[in-house]
Amino acid sequence: MLASLDQSAFSTWLLSSNSIWAYPTVLTLHTFGMMVLVGSALMIDLRLLGFGRGIPLSSLERLFRVMWGAFWLNLLTGTMLFIADASKRGTQPLFLIKLTLVASGIATIILLRRRVFDGTKEPLVISGAAKRLAFTSLLVWSAAVTAGRLLAYVG
Amino acid sequence: MPELANPADLAHVHLLINHFPTIGMILGLGLLLLSFLRKNDHLKKVSLEVLFLIALATMPVYVSGQAAAETLKGQTGVSAEAIIAHNDAALASFIMMEITGFVAWLLLWRMRRIGWPTTGLTYTVLVLSVMTVASVARAANIGGDIRHPEIAGGQYAGLFGQSSGTPLISAAAIKDFVLQHPFVWPTCETLHFLGMSLMFGVLLIVNLRLVGWLRGMSFASVHRLLPFGLMGFGINFITGMFFFIAASEQYTQNVAFHYKVILLILAGVNYLVLTVYDEAWALPASAEAPLSGKLLGASALVLSIGVMYFGRMLPFIGNAF
Fold first, then answer.
1. Which residues of B touch A39 (CB under 8 A)?
2. Residues sharing a CB contact under 8 Å with residue B159, sequence separation 6 or more, in sequence order
């Protein structure tokens, strides 16, 4: 199954085409999506941890849309990069760790949105539970970036 | 991708701009001293802006110097010892310069928020800029020994080679450290990506607010986040320097890197304007930014995405690993 993916015509095109629009562009879009998604998540986490208290939480709500856009972009480009190298990635522990970390990061975002950005009144103080969740989110996203970047170096 | 410059062009660029750091630092320090004499905070702000801009302008000076060294390698009438000594002295003064620029920026940011310069930071900038002037003058002086036989009496006398011994910071030692330990490069790459995300998160909020897509926040409240952006840049400057020192040829001869440095400098100027920008500072939560603010925000986003693009494309447009 995995082998048939990385022997597909798509995989051959992505990896061996000399076009800048093949592998380089897909990889760059994946990096762009990461930067937008993780950057936005870090900002929301920092705000909940007490930096930039003057920024109303409700004004940050639109960032969730940005994050979802970046997430779908990276799901698409990530799938393309996976198909190109399926039999290696599919059995690589670090890759599975990375997927788990990304899924956990998304889970923290969904939870934060439900619990803190629920559209009601602006909270006067951020609860301890919300701060712990924001801190977890910060750690999980940093770990996800680390695992993803190290995929280029770990065999 | 059109080529911008070959190594010989960059050697020329180095000769054109290599006096900026020395003269610029002296100018910045002079304005700072004058602002004390005149007790003028506006002049102090100008001097800090000069120090920050010179810290930016020093980046292409250091980078082009590396290309100049590659071009000069093996030529007659050129002192290899002087090149190595100049490189090490230049690296030390480059680091000093960036620290000075960073603290100068921090004081500008504080001044924008509270309205006056805080004493501790002001004197830190003063001490740092005096040290940087001394350090950059020393680097420039050794640079002059590379190919000015009239100064060294017709032959390079090894003036600094004899007396200095092991330099405080050695580019060759850093290169060996990065290349001999397999964990260093991947670690720096990881930190480089984390720094990038932090920096871009800040740029995203501040500039989407200016452009008008994010609403309901005052400019002053997002201005609070700017130091995190510069912190991200600091991480990326340090890790980026490890890459550059360890494998300079793959950057000096890489057109993607040339574009990246140019966009980085423009983005840096843009960041300075964001920090001190008066019209935007007063914006309440509900107000729309003036056209200049919108253009500033849009250009910051375009420039920073451009920096990321050329960084990611280094191995594909050029030859970096």
1. 197-204
2. B145, B152
**Terminal-residue alpha carbon distance, chain A:** 21
Say if the Cβ atoms of A54 and B316 lie within 8 Å: no
Residues B109 and B214 in one domain: no
pTM score, whole prediction: 0.93
Does B284 lie at the interface with A, CB-CB under 8 angstroms?
A: no
Interface contact B199-A39, CB threshold 8 A: yes
- B300 interfacial to chain A (CB closer than 8 Å): no
Distance from CA of B127 to the nearest CA of A (A): 30
**CB distance A55–B193 less than 8 Å?**
no
Q: What is the CA radius of gyration of chain A?
A: 18
Q: Look up residue A153 and give its two tokens.
A: 């170096």
Dump pLDDT digits (tens) for B276-305: 988 888 888 888 999 999 999 999 999 999
Q: How far, in Å, CA of B83 to CA of B72, rounded?
A: 9
Checking ipTM against 0.90, whether it exceeds it is yes
- Chosen for mutation from B109, B190, B260, B313 (greatest number of chain A CBs closer than 10 Å) is B190
Query: What are the pLDDT digits (tens) for B109-147?
Result: 999 999 999 999 999 999 999 999 999 999 988 888 887
Instruction: Indicate the residue among B169, B203, B230 that finishes a domain.
Output: B169
Q: Provide the domain limits for residue B38.
A: 1-169
Residue B286 and residue B141 in one domain: no
